């Protein structure tokens, strides 16, 4: 079912179209993160339509723990459950297993760990991750992998990556089996593999070449934005992305700031996701074309302007900085909601502008203008 069409390129930057059973995704795209089948900050799927969201991202581990993937399946899958008719990507749960579990044992068969909610014992391996994601019936499922620390030693990373490759083969086999079953909700579920290797470019390149041969629906670069510098991240992308298939979508997991996204696009990335816009919004930090603003600042107390005068989001069309600041100070949920709506719109709209710039062949100029605007805002104390 999946079909990735490369529309144009500028240097390594790609402008593509990815057809799925739940609709066509225009890339580069930013996926709006709704970990437990909801965007934090009281933003509904009706809102997501209004602010131009193409893909929603939910989390396998969290939904497995609560309400339970079998419950979601009984209710018709995630699309039905959360009333969303566009593509959904579910991450495999691997990252949460490694970041949330205090006690865990990694074995060849998978990982044994305790739930972060009530401590009960859970086992998750490649087959379990695929089964949970099949029950959720997302458009795109991510392969189960280990995300080694960016400061892990070389020997550990090499062994971990080799196991991740073995796990990927098991994921692929299990997904083929699940997609053939009569009671599977989404028999066209797609599988993306994940490149790992910490900051060792030779391990990453070798891994990229190995997984590229497996002819998956798409490829992610994982294990970045976990503590290494932005420069290190860009260096890894420069080295690795050329070894991933250009005729498949490429996804940089958990990244990032608007500047990170512009740099990622330039290096050939199609898909992005990050909690920044919603998390920052909940704390009154909002993105504009001139950098980030902190609406708690006293200087906005009597400011009747919208967050960003150039912005057409529902928040900027109707409410002032002063009003939103008042809501935030009063701990009124509407304040968080309006900030999150604005930030997600800002990201979605920036991706639209990136696609337009690539279509017009002037992405390099667009990127330069954008970065200069962010820098100017930072120097002028826009925060």
What topology, given as strand order, has the largest sheet?
4-5-6-10-11-12-13-14
**Which band does the percent of strand residues land in?**
15-25%
Helix content: 40-55%
The count of helical stretches stands at 15
Major sheet details: 8 strands, parallel, barrel
Q: Can you tell me the CATH superfamily of the largest domain?
A: Queuine tRNA-ribosyltransferase-like
Structural class: alpha/beta
CATH class assignment of the largest domain: Alpha Beta
Task: Say what the CATH topology of the largest domain is.
Answer: TIM Barrel
Distance between the termini: 46 Å
Radius of gyration: 21 Å
Family: Belongs to the queuine tRNA-ribosyltransferase family.
Subunit structure: Homodimer. Within each dimer, one monomer is responsible for RNA recognition and catalysis, while the other monomer binds to the replacement base PreQ1.
GO molecular function: metal ion binding; tRNA-guanosine(34) queuine transglycosylase activity
EC number: 2.4.2.29
